[in-house]
Amino acid sequence: MAFPADDMPDRIRIHEVGPRDGLQNEKTVVPTPVKAEFIRRLADAGLRTIEATSFVHPKWVPQLADAERLMAMLDGVEARLPVLVPNERGLERALALGVREIAVFGSATESFAKANLNRSVDESLAMFEPVVARARDAGASVRGYLSMCFGDPWEGPVPVAQVVGVARRLFDLGCTELSLGDTIGVATPGHVTELLVSLHQVGISADHLAVHFHDTYGQALANTLSALQSGVTTVDASAGGIGGCPYAKSATGNLATEDLVWMLNGLGIDTGVDLDRLTATSVWMADHLGRPSPSRTVRALSHEDSHEEQ
Amino acid sequence: MAFPADDMPDRIRIHEVGPRDGLQNEKTVVPTPVKAEFIRRLADAGLRTIEATSFVHPKWVPQLADAERLMAMLDGVEARLPVLVPNERGLERALALGVREIAVFGSATESFAKANLNRSVDESLAMFEPVVARARDAGASVRGYLSMCFGDPWEGPVPVAQVVGVARRLFDLGCTELSLGDTIGVATPGHVTELLVSLHQVGISADHLAVHFHDTYGQALANTLSALQSGVTTVDASAGGIGGCPYAKSATGNLATEDLVWMLNGLGIDTGVDLDRLTATSVWMADHLGRPSPSRTVRALSHEDSHEEQ
C-alpha cells in the first residue's frame, strides 16, 4: 500500500499521559511501586515520552503526593519523563531531582481558570511567568497545556481568537511546546482545522503543537486525524483510555493510546509502539483500578482468545 | 465559522440500520410493537432512511421473523423504509407488501461468503442475479451490502483489488447503491481512501457508495471522516451503536448514529436529525435491551442532568 499518504507525517510522537493525567483523579491511591511498574511497562512497550507525575501540593491531588518517591524508582527507564508543575514551589522540587522537562497547565477560558486554578487567565499567566523563566534558565523544556480550547462547561463554545490569544502569550512567556486540550471532548474535526489554521496565521506552527483530545462524545480519533492532516506530529494519549475531566459530562476520558496506535499502524505511520505489549499493560492496569479499560482496541484485542474459541 | 469546509459535502444522508442490523443478533426477541415504536421514534427524530427489517427465513434470524407484521404497523411513518432480502423468496414477500427499496447482503471474501451464506462468492452472486433483476423490474432500488471490505477474521487483510472486483460485479448485476462494510472494524482512514480511489478508477463514483463502519477498534468515526473527504455522502449508522458482527472480536458494533451526528453538526453538515430526540430514543431502546448504549454521545448527553447537580 502507498501509506503514509502524501498529506500525512512519516512519524508521530506519542506523549503518553496515563501515569499523570490518567491516574490523577483516581479516588483510590495507587501504590507507588505499581505506578513505577506502569511507567516501566509503558516504556518497554515502546513509548518514548511518558508524563510521569505532577509536583502539585498533596492537598490538591492526593493521588500524586508520592512524586519524589516515584521519580526515585524510575532510574534506567528508557523514556523522556516530563512532569507537571503547578507553580514555582513545584518547579523547584522537580529541578532538584534533575528533571529537565516540565509542563504547566493553563486555561483558555476564565471560568476554568477560576475553577481549576482559582485565578483569572491574566493572573494564571502571571503565575506561570517566573516558573517558565526559571525552568528555561535551568535548561528545561516547557510544555504549556492549554485546556478548554474548543468548549467550556460554563461558557459553551470557545472563540478561536480567544484561544489563539492565550496560546500566543504562553509562547511569549517561553513555552517550547503547546498542547491544545479539548478538556470536555466537544470538538469536531472542522473546529480543529480552524484553530490550527488560526494559530499558524499568528506564527505558531504545527511542529510546536500537540493535541490532547477527550473521547466524551466519541470524537477524539477523528479530531486527531484532522490534526495530523494539518501537520501536527505530537499527539497526547492515555494508555487504555484511563483518566478524564471531572467537568465532562460522562466518565469517558482521554483518547486511548491503543486506539491511536491502531490507526497510525494502519496509516503506515511509525510510532515505535508494540501494540500487544501496550494492550497487556493496560489490561494489567485496569485490573489494578478495578474496572475494564474504556479503550475499544484494548477490549477487542483482549477478547481475542475468547473469539478464537467460538 | 466557515463550515462546512470546501472538501466536505453540504449534506449527508444517514442510512439508519438500528432496527435491522442493530437488532438482528439480539438473543431476546423484541416485541413487534416495540420495534415499530423504535422506527417511529427514529423517524420523528429526523432520520429519513431507516432499514426496517429483513425478509430472511425465521430459522436463520428468529429476531426478524415478524417482518410482515412489523411492516403492517409502519403505515404513515415519514421515512424511506428499505428492507434486506436474502433471496427470491424474501424478495417476493417484500414486493407483495409494496416495498420498493431492497438490499442484498454479499461478501468480498470467500470465507465470509461460506460462513454467512454457505456459498462461494460466485455462487452468491449467481443467487443475487435473479433477485436484483426481478427487483429492478418491479421498480425497486437495490442496495448491495458488501461485507468484509477491509479485513476478514479468517483471511486477514482483504486486497483492495478483490473488493473492487466484487463491487464491480454487484453493480453489473443492477445494484443501484453499494454499502462498503468494515464488518470486523479493522479499517483505518488511509485504507478507506485507497479503496474509494480504486473504486473511482473502475468507474464507481462516491455518489453511488455508502460506508458502513464498525467501532470494534474505535476507528469508525475517523474512517467516516476519511470517506466524507473522498466524496461519500451516504453513511450507515445505528442508533445508540446497537448491533455488531458476531465474528468481530468484542461486543462493540456499529458506528453510533449519535456520534456521527455530533461530528456532522460540528462540521456544519446538515442531517435533519434532532440529536436530543435521537438520544432519548436510544436511551429508551437501551432500557428495552437491558444494557446501556455503547454510544459515547448517548452516554454523555444522558448524563447531563447528573452533571448539573455536581
Draw up the topology in text:
The structure is a homodimer of 310-residue chains.
Chain A (H helix, E strand, L loop, with lengths): L12 E4 L1 H5 L9 H13 L4 E2 L2 E2 L12 H6 L10 E2 L3 H9 L4 E7 L2 H8 L3 H17 L3 E7 L3 E2 L3 E2 L2 H14 L3 E6 L6 H13 L7 E5 L6 H10 L4 E4 L19 H10 L8 H15 L6 H7 L1 H5 L2
Parallel strand pairs in A: 1-2, 1-11, 3-4, 4-5, 5-6, 6-9, 9-10, 10-11
Antiparallel strand pairs in A: 7-8
Helix pairs in contact in A: 2-11, 6-7, 7-8, 8-9, 11-12
Q: How many structural domains are formed by the residues of chain A?
A: 1
CATH architecture of chain A: Alpha-Beta Barrel
Rg of chain A (C-alpha, Å): 18 Å
Chains forming the largest contact: A-B, 48 and 48 residues
Multimeric state of these chains?
Answer: homodimer
Cα shape of chain A:
globular
Number of strands of chain A: 11
- C-alpha end-to-end distance of chain A: 32 Å
Low-confidence stretches of chain A: 305-310
Strand order of the largest sheet of chain A: 2-1-11-10-9-6-5-4-3
H/E topology pattern of chain A: EHHEEHEHEHHEEEHEHEHEHHHH
- CATH homologous superfamily designation of chain A: Aldolase class I
Give me the CATH fold name of chain A: TIM Barrel
